[in-house]
Amino acid sequence: MLKKIQEWRGKETSKSLSLKEEIMKHPIPEHIAIIMDGNGRWAKKRALPRVAGHHEGMKTVRKITKAANSLGVKVLTLYAFSTENWKRPKLEVDFLLKLPEEFLGTFLPELIEENVQVRLMGNKTDLPDHTLRAVEHAMDQTKENTGLVLNFALNYGGRDEILRAVKALADDVNENRISSDQLTEEIFSEYLFSNLLPDPDLLIRTSGEIRLSNFMLWQLAYAEFYFTDVLWPDFNENNLYEAINSFQLRGRRFGGI
Ligand SMILES: Cc1cc(N2CCCCCC2)n2ncc(-c3ccc(F)cc3)c2n1
User: Where is the active site (predicted)?
Assistant: First the structure.
């Protein structure tokens, strides 16, 4: 039995290595965005509390961040907490909003070592002070880093983002800081939380759900979508390679023929 497990693991490793070698021969998506779904289901399958799935999912964040950075991905955006998540039970929300400081408290030295730049995308005002302090400290400690931009969508909602951008733009028009005929998609993008970041090339959503859930509604206009039944806590480097391989096999036309 042990021999069979070792043989299986050997095959898995060689499959993973050969797939990584394969995708490295072709352009790697510059910006990958991930809806990290399936954490509660992962816990339920093991008769564990939902928060155990969130905690396991946090370990997957580290694993996939390292894998993306080693591939040369430029931006990795992770949907960590949506504006809709406030509707969850208070105990679960409190647990979730402690994860940023737990993750950074453990892995920030490693992120700095790996030249990763931490960034936040979302509405900061409603976040607890302890959460914001941890993230802003990490952003300050990594602002000079030039490797992977690890962009956490925290208290983020696509419609909220667009509405805030329109309001700020309307103020600028009313104050004659810009006229509506000067407005372009590029200028509008600067009003979004994701300003200065390139749009995602590849969106990955785990756990089999096939919907956007109010995520990066403007920015995903031309992205390739990849859906997998794998639950986020089980998502590994080979699953990432499979998603990138699928992306590379598709011909992107950006609306052209
Ligand atoms: C709210 C939340 C939930 C959260 N989960 C773990 C991953 C699965 C999805 C939900 C639960 N993770 N994982 C890492 C962070 C995080 C956020 C900001 C930051 F600067 C550093 C780490 C995180 N934040």
Answer: 37, 85 (proton acceptor)
CA proximity to 246, closest of 6, 10, 23, 32: 23
Query: Rounded to whole angstroms, how far apart are CA atoms 55 and 130?
Result: 18
Residues 49-80 have pLDDT tens digits of: 999 999 999 999 999 999 999 999 999 999 99
- Cβ atoms of residues 150 and 111 within 8 Å: yes
* Best residue among 34, 76, 98, 99 to mutate for probing ligand 1, ranked by most atoms within 8 Å of CB: 99
Ligand 1 binding residues, C-beta < 6 A: 36, 39, 54, 57-58, 61, 80-81, 96-97, 99-100, 103-104, 118, 135, 138, 152, 154, 232
CA atoms lying within 13 Å on the CB side of residue 7? 4
User: How far does residue 100's CA lie from ligand 1's centre (Å)?
Assistant: 5
**Nearest 5 degrees, angle CA 237-CA 241-CA 244?**
140
Active site residue 85: yes
Pick the CATH number of 28-157+201-248 from 3.40.50.1980, 3.40.50.620, 3.40.50.1370, 3.40.1180.10: 3.40.1180.10
| Residue 224 marked in a binding site | yes
pLDDT, residue 11, reads 67
Identify whether 229 is a catalytic site residue: no
> Residue 52's Cα: distance from chain center in Å?
20
**Positive/negative CA dihedral, 214, 216, 217, 221:** negative
